[in-house]
Amino acid sequence: MFKKATASDGPLVTYALIAACCLLFLLSPAAGLAPPDGDRTELLRARQDHFARWGVVPADLWAGPVRAALTPLTALFVHGTWLHLLGNMLFLQVFGSLAEARMGRLRFLACYLAAGYLALVGFAVAYPDSTQPLVGASGAISGVLGAFLFLLPRARVTSLFPFLFFLPLRFPAWFVLPLWCALQWLAARHGGPRPGVAYLAHLIGFGVGFLYALLRWRGRTGPGAGSGPPARVKEPVQATEGDSQP
Prior knowledge:
- The chain is mainly α.
- The protein contains 9 helices and 3 strands, in the order H-H-H-H-H-H-H-E-E-H-H-E.
- The longest helix has 22 residues, at 82-103.
- It is globular, with a radius of gyration of 18 Å.
């Protein structure tokens, strides 16, 4: 049985998710760790087959086999490039650690998986004819950000803004995360099913995470409701948040 995580326990679920994503990436053709004399064309074909098999293909999700319904879960553990993986894991480690401590392990895991699944399904609903594989944990991690905003709105996030010459400045989560969400929304207006970042999936995941925390902890006080002194979190706002394809 899961118990509520404490600082002494450590964010075990967060670490387990990071370890799983990293291990599966290293074992996949996306890592590019093929023998030096390997055929590059064959490697690229293996990557595409890998993404098509384990990622979400919206057109297949509605008209494909029953197993396609599981791909919004498997896609959460598939990443397209090293930068894609490292950017997502950075966000997960920083925000997931504190969110897990406040939510408890089981609820944190449920929020992560539900937000990730619904984010990818939501993108597929918006672009049902797309044949572009969608991979990455960014929808689930966006859900963690949404829950973090509700539970720890006063946590101070050290952010790097390019228009301020990347000076490290500390702002509360209630300022940084809505700003991040607004940037995702602006980008999503010009996005679509073409290769690139799936901003719409980020927005859906963020909304699911925030709503989950709102419904579960609304009106409560104590650690589970984000009370206590402000925590300090270091996170570059411009880190990679996930691609809709490698």
